[in-house]
Amino acid sequence: MPVPKKSLLDPSAPRRHMHPMLIETESTPNPATLKFLPGRTVMESGTRDFATPEEAEASSLADAIFRLGDVTGVFFGRDFVSVTAAPGVAWSDLKPDVLAIMLDHFSAAMPLFRPASAGFSVPSDDTVLTDDPADADIVAQIRDLIETRVRPAVANDGGDIVYRGFDKGKVFLQLQGACAGCPSSSATLKNGIEQLLKYYVPEVTEVRAV
Predict the structure, then answer these.
(1) Does 1 fall in a domain?
(2) What is the CATH number of the domain that holds 44?
(3) Number of domains composing the chain
(4) Residue 6: inside a domain, yes or no?
(5) Which of 5, 24, 82, 135 has the fewest CB neighbours in a 10 Å radius?
(6) Spans of the chain below 50 pLDDT
(7) 100 and 32: one domain?
(8) SS3 of 188, please?
(9) pLDDT at residue 122, as a whole number
(10) Mapping DSSP to helix (H, G, I), strand (E, B) and coil, where does residue 22 land?
């Protein structure tokens, strides 16, 4: 039976308290990736990268976005979520669906991760090198530069670059979020990060992505 309009205006009628929110979007250097800013903290610390639907099952939000079928990556930063569209998918078509999922999630204050799935992404053994203890001072300098100079700048572009090892002058880094698959990522590694590390740490001879 239809609800009389009068009851909707009745002060004594129970009301649902809605908390309107606006999710802003920003483009990134990677045309396939869009950055979504919900105006609140997404990750209290660290980051989390989802490159497959299976990985996304750890998070109800990432899982829902992957289920759209036109997504190849979801990345959680401190105050943003980056989403990468599949090849050939227009953001003009995908964006409304992603926004709807995020609005539902953040408006309801739903947990970011499913029980027993929270935490940071754990790289597989084949992407992490065991640093030589003799290089401890060099590695400490490299890590500090990445944390203070590289990652904040990359986060502005909707991605992350994580240290994965140092071996005989070579620094190995993993690209996540908007950085993964970005056409300009090679230039960023060579012309930006590599030059920065070489300048401050003479022992560095090359930077490679893993």
Answers:
(1) no
(2) 3.30.1370.70
(3) 2
(4) no
(5) 5
(6) 1-19, 118-126
(7) yes
(8) helix
(9) 42
(10) coil
